[in-house]
Amino acid sequence: MGKKKIVLIGASNSMLFNGLRAGLNQDNVELTNLSLGGASTLHILYEFLRFRNESIVIAADLIILESNIVDIDHIIDLPDFKNLILRNIFLTYNELSKLNKKFLVLLLPYIKNDFKKNETINNAHRMCCNQYGFNCVDVQSVYLKNNVMDFYMTMMPDKAHQLQRIMYEFGKNIANENFSLFKFSLPSSIDLDFKICSPKNDLQINEKILNLKKNMFYKEYCFRVHKDITISLSRKNQNYKIIASHSWTDNGKKNPFKFYSSLIFFNNADNFIETCATPSYNAFAAIYDDFVIGDNSKIYLGNNRNINYYDLVNLMLYKDEGKIQVAVDDIKETVIKQEYNFSHLFPDVVFIKEILEEYLNSTSNISIQISSLTQQLNHFKTFSTAKQRIQNQLPYRLGQAMIINSKNFLGYIFLPYILLSIVILYKQEQKNYKHKIKLNPESTLPPLETYPDYNEALKEKRCFTYKLGLALIEANKKWYGGGYIKLWFKIKKLKYEFKTKN
Asked: Are 310 and 277 in contact (CB under 8 A)?
C-alpha cells in the first residue's frame, strides 16, 4: 500500500518546525506543505489556483486547511472590511469544494480580539464546513467546552501559536487516522471567475528581469517595482478586482518586520488604492478594497518604511458578479455537524493540562525555585556572586534545562513546556524587578564588573550551557527563516567545539 498523500496549507502554525507539519510527516505519509506565515484563507485559494500546484492537488488523499487565526487578526472595526474578509472565506470554500476532495479544516483557538469578533470568523468557517462538506477539527470549541482556554493562552507568550508538542501529537493522530472516515466535499454549482496575474504573462514584463528567490521552504520569481517604474495592467484584465498581492521583498536585513513596502493601483486621481504595507519577506496580502481594473490602470510603488522597492510575485484577481454576497449579519452561531466533526483527533487537552500543572508545581531537577522576587533580590544583594547572576540569566537557564531534561524520556517529552515555563517566569521576574527599582532605586543590583569574581563569571558566558541557551533564543527569533533547523546544526557545532576544548 502506497503512502498517504497529504497537502497542508495554512499559516505559521503549519510551518513551525517541531509542530503540526513534523507530526504529519510520518513514514506512511508523503507531505506537501504550501503554508505561508501570516496568510489568510484567501491564500489557500490562491495556491490551489496556481498551475504549478495542480498535479499535487489532484493526487492528494487529504488536504488540511488552517487560517482562521489570520482571518481574526485582520479584523478592524469597519463593516465593509469585515464583510470582505467573510466574502473571501466563502469564495474560498465555494471554489475548493469543486475539487471533490477530502478536506480537513483546523479552527485553532485565539483570543486577540473580543470573543464576538473571533466567533464571527469561526462561525463563518463552521457554516462553510457544513454547507460544502468539509471535515473539521474545531479546537476553539474544544478549549471552550473543557474550560482550558485561559490556561493554554496564559502559558503561551505568543497567543497566535499553539504549543508545538501538542500540535506534533495532533499531526500524528491525523496521519494515523483511517482516511476512509473523512467525507468528500460537496461541489458547489456557483461558478466564479478568478485569475492569477503574473508579471511575466500579464504585466508585459521581460522575463530576463525577473529575479529568482528561494530558501529551504519556497522558490518564487519576482519583479522589482521601484520609484522609476510604472506598470500598465493588461486590458484583458478589465473589470476584474485586485483582491490580493503576493510579494517577496527581501531586504537582507535580520528583522523583516521593520521593513515595509506597498503598491498603488491607479485608475485616475479619484480612483486609486494602496495595498497594505507588506513586511520584507515572502508574504501574501489580501486587499480589502474594491478596486476594479479599468482600461488604463497602472501600478506604482507606494509608501515604504526603510525600503524603496516592492518585489512582486503575483496579483490575484476576481470578477465580482454578485453571486456570493456575505455580511456580518448573515453569520449565525454554528456547530459543526457530527458527520464532519473530527475534533477527537486533537490531543486530550484536559489530561495534558493536569500533567503540566502537576509537573510544574512539583520540585524539578533544574535549579529554578519559584519564589517571590523580593526574596530573590534580597538574596542577590547580600549573598549573590557575579557567577550566580550569570547563571540566573535566561540563556543559562534555558541551556541548563535542555541539558538536564534531555537525559531521560519524561524530561524530553515535557521539555517544550519546561522551556516555556522558564521564559514566562523570567519575563515576570524582569517585569517585577523593573517595577521594584522604580519604587525603590536602591534595590538596583550593582554592575557585574564590581563583583570580585567578575572574571570567573565571564567564563560562564562562554560555557556550553550558556551558548546552548543563546542558540535556542536566536532560533526562536528566526523560526520563519528556518531557525529551528539551523539550531540542530548549531548544537552539533557547539558539542564539537566543547569536546575539542576538553
From this structure: no
pLDDT digits (tens, 9 = 90+) for 435-476: 777 877 877 777 877 777 778 778 888 888 888 888 888 877
**What pTM was computed for the model?**
0.74
Handedness of CA 445, 446, 451, 456 (dihedral sign): positive
Whether residue 161 contacts residue 12, with contact meaning beta carbons closer than 8 Å, is answered with yes
Close Cβ partners of 378 (under 8 Å, ≥ 6 residues apart): none
Provide the β-strand partners of residue 196: 316
* Alpha carbon distance 416, 165 (integer Å): 7
For residue 279, give the nearest of 249, 253, 241 by alpha carbon.
249
Cα–Cα distances (Å) from 202 to 185, 198, 271, in that order, read 32, 5, 22
Q: Which residue has the cell 515576570?
A: 428
Place of cell 508579471: 199
Decide if 278 contacts 310 (C-beta within 8 A).
yes
Using alpha carbons, select from 197, 259, 262, 266 the residue that is nearest to residue 227. Answer: 262
Contacts of 347 (CB under 8 A, 6+ apart): 166, 169, 170, 173
pLDDT of 74-107, one tens digit each?
Answer: 876 555 778 899 999 999 999 999 999 999 999 9
Closest-CA residue to 168 (of 342, 356, 415, 407): 415
Please state the three-class secondary structure of 10-24 as a single string.
ECHHHCCCCCHHHHH
Residue labelled with grid coordinates 449579519: 329
Spatial distance between the Cα atoms of 136 and 336, rounded to a whole number of angstroms: 7
Query: What is the rounded (10 degree) CA torsion for 173, 488, 27, 96?
Result: 60
Grid cell listed for 371: 519564589
User: For helices 415-439 and 394-405, what crossing angle results, to 10°?
Assistant: 160
Contact criterion met (CB below 8 Å) for 302 and 97: no
Rounded-to-integer distance, Cα 41 and Cα 286, Å: 9
Question: How far is it, in rounded angstroms, from Cα 95 to Cα 132?
Answer: 10
Cell (9 digits) for 224:
522589482
